[in-house]
Write a structure and sequence with these properties.
It contains 9 helices and 19 strands. The chain has 2 domains: about 160 residues, FAD/NAD(P)-binding domain (3-Layer(bba) Sandwich); about 170 residues, D-Amino Acid Oxidase, subunit A, domain 2 (D-Amino Acid Oxidase, Chain A, domain 2). The chain is globular. The chain is about 30% helix and about 25% strand. Strands 3, 6, 7, 8, 13, 14, 15, 16 and 17 form a 9-stranded mixed sheet that branches. The chain binds flavin-adenine dinucleotide (FAD).
Length: about 350
């Protein structure tokens, strides 16, 4: 019998596997390698401020430092480049947005700055209301992180590519068994798919959110910044840029839409002065939820079923911190941050 089955190898499953192996645990990671998942198309930005009101992201002081160190440790162990420090140039689309940043400047000086030589960006962008620089911020190569994590699982003989079906899984109060793989627990890291397919957790307040992205070539744009107005332009692999994204609450499918492409290109043409070409148009669902807080912990009524999910728009920064916290909880019994602990839904999950 092994210690844990991990269902799903997005960013959550990858970090769970990483930390459990570090604790000397035996695992089997199962993933169906769906091509367009949140972790495979995310830009990987860790932004310390958020929203139109420009407030600090939840727990950011603790979480950003933790995440930066975790990705650095991972990249050293895998002899690759996963994370880089960067800044976000926030171009204000209206006077109102400029005012929102200006009001915050004296209070959040650790993250908000007036950029040096602001007018240098006039060669690249149209803007009338100034720029605020957000720094430090981090950029994580999420697709590459997932690929490197998988390679390690494969090397350790603890990876299985298959479409997991719950009807083939036996769950008792003592063990879980899936097609001959017997484990003391299953950890569900199945992302947005889990909101519908996972019989243990569908009652959680998921609110799936669709994100669409254009991948562009913009040969003359400097690659050492993230540019943000209503859309974000972020350096992406192979000298390309990631441009997006949408936050769609109402959608009929998870596929790229003509509406997004037209709207985004219109915004680009008004903002960007440089020539560009569209290379790809991709989309995926974010495992968002109504509370905007993760789901981490052991199912309150099924002791062999655990979860790490519900990362919404912040999986890149939240997942290393909460994967480590869940690992410590499983292995050493230490507590999980109450706002993220799935036990806050003990009553809701009793209805399942
Ligand atoms: C357009 C977009 C941009 C984003 N940008 C950012 C960003 O800049 N910064 C940030 O922090 N976050 C960002 N996010 C959010 C971030 O991507 C998510 O929070 C995070 O990737 C969620 O990771 P996950 O592992 O929970 O889920 P997923 O990435 O969905 O992974 C779940 C995995 O489980 C597998 N799986 C599911 N069901 C099964 C099954 N039955 N059998 C086998 N395998 C299964 C899936 O194939 C997948 O590989 C973005 C998301 C999108 C869509």
């Amino acid at each position: 019998m092994i210690d844990y089955i991990i269902l799903g190898q997005g960013i959550c499953g990858s970090w769970m596997g990483y930390y459990l192996l570090k604790e000397g645990k035996t695992i089997m990671v199962i993933d169906n390698e769906a091509p367009f998942t949140a972790s495979r198309i995310a830009s990987g930005v860790i932004n310390p401020v958020t929203g139109r009101r420009v407030v600090k992201t939840w727990m950011i002081d603790e979480i950003m430092n933790y995440a930066a160190e975790a990705y650095k440790e991972f990249q050293e162990a895998h002899h690759t480049r996963i994370i880089s420090e960067t800044n976000i140039l926030s171009f204000h689309a209206t006077q109102q947005m400029k005012d929102a940043h200006d009001t915050r400047l004296p209070n959040q000086l650790d993250f908000l700055h007036i950029p040096e030589n602001e007018s240098q960006w006039e060669a690249y962008f149209n803007y009338r209301f100034g720029i605020t620089e957000v720094s430090p911020a981090w950029l994580v190569d999420m697709p590459s992180f997932v690929v490197h994590a998988r390679e390690t699982f494969v090397k350790n003989n603890c990876y299985l590519k298959t479409d997991f079906k719950w009807e083939d899984c036996t769950v008792t109060n003592d063990y879980v068994e899936y097609k001959g793989i017997k484990a003391s627990k299953i950890i569900c890291c199945d992302g947005a798919a889990g909101a519908e397919d996972n019989p243990y957790f569908t009652l959680l307040p998921y609110a799936k959110n669709k994100g669409e992205v254009l991948i562009l070539s913009i040969p003359d744009l400097p690659r050492n910044h993230i540019y943000k107005q209503n859309i974000t332009i972020t350096p992406w692999k192979e000298d390309l840029f990631w441009v997006g994204s949408s936050y769609e609450w109402n959608f009929s499918d998870d596929k790229p839409s003509a509406t997004f492409r037209i709207k985004t290109e219109l915004q680009l043409q008004q903002w960007l002065k440089l020539r560009y070409s569209v290379r790809e148009h991709i989309s995926a669902l974010r495992p968002a939820n109504l509370e905007r807080r993760p789901f981490a912990g052991i199912h309150p009524h099924h002791p062999t079923v655990a979860i790490l999910n519900g990362m919404g728009t912040k999986g890149c920064s939240l997942s290393p911190f909460f994967a480590n916290q869940l690992t410590q909880h499983l292995v050493h019994g230490t507590p999980i941050t109450p706002e993220a602990d799935v036990n806050r839904f003990t009553k809701v999950l009793a209805r399942g």
